[in-house]
């Protein structure tokens, strides 16, 4: 919500996001009395505070791990910390749930907005838009909660008196509120961002997309055909009215991730991470390493290229990559910070029907010559950014020549998606100035890094957090959500038609001729017979890899355990059916000391 920062003060934001540190149970409330919401400024401030709290989750490290680790897509990087979120081994109520308290705090704030803001002195249309924003945001948080934990406390009134009692309400009741809120929000939100909610805050199509997702998810949960039909119809309606909404796909998939297009036609909803010191998120040039509201997502999958790009690296007798020699790269803003928290799941399966295959290349990104999404999603070439002199007689320089790498010209590291004879120092028999690291040499310290979110604007302060927004929903998700809904409704022909829009876009490359792009689009076109659940899940990997959706995708489709056991070797032996819900945070359980104990999810 790019412009709202110009309307409210930093002090207001701080007061809205401090939470319920003085309240001992799960009804978090901000330090606001009901009369605060009797003014337009109070209502606007409450909504702004909730948007601010979303910023404190999406793009931050712990929350990103919770949304993506322990799936078929990601396994641990060398600096992943061995966390149970990746493996499910030892996952319990004390190491999960960073957004639980924030979500309930925000829900209470929004209840105040809705309860007291209905009578504020504003033009009717403006008041409706404010209340619609509040309904959307309440549904947004409840949808996250019910997908993650199932039955959760359900509140629709502003809580002013602390209580140490709490209970969980059935997921069915939570979905009923979500659907009601989103239906009403969609009716009153504008077609396109309107002041003061500019940038990419909630609009009518955003509320509709979330509504379609809610119907789809509830449909999977209860096997309700009408929910699938409703979700499909909503997506059709969004697509039919895309011109009214100012939405469309970029012709080139890669353009969706160009920083200049962050607020463009394909982006539907974002969490802003603006560079404005008055908010106190970090000091410019302070090399901040974490904390609330800091967007570090560009770097979580980044391998340690300044340290692990030894120019004389070799392959040992066991066929593994051994880093050796002077590093061929130094840290810079273009390639970003080397956090090495998680990596694409490229480990080969040891045994079973998938033996010798890996999810990353052999299941998700299989058609890399035609499908542009692999090339547009991952760094595979690192151009030298420092001059390194390598003498012929230097230890482990097997090339037999002396040379100096030329910054901006020579390739320091090439990570091809196929095997290259002679790697890592040769391409066949030709000496290579940098190093060649094909899939057989990838490990938890060197692998293709996700480049969708990279932020080269850091300049001299490249260690600062990113100021790019975290994009939560893109327009292509409307097609994919609609396709899944049609698949569940038994209409594979319509599902294929929607998927083909996404796939044919992915076939486009700027370097191709018109004829080549037409042939590629034909090659990417699927038939109704090819539409299966696994195909849809693989397609969502190709389209949304790393975009905070995977864990919920697998849970929604009841595929988590099966897909993890099939593809993720580090988690396969530990994941169980009860892991389809996350453990209730222990802090929540401990705070409920009156009445019945607050129940933990089964299995934890």
Automatic annotation (TrEMBL):
It comes from the Bacteria. SUPFAM superfamilies: TPR-like (SSF48452). Its main location: membrane. Residues 449-604 form the RagB/SusD domain. InterPro entries: SusD-like_N, SusD_RagB_dom, TPR-like_helical_dom_sf. It is found in: Cell outer membrane. Residues 25-216 form the SusD-like N-terminal domain. Keywords: Cell outer membrane, Membrane, Signal. Belongs to the SusD family. This is RagB/SusD family nutrient uptake outer membrane protein. It comes from Dyadobacter chenhuakuii.
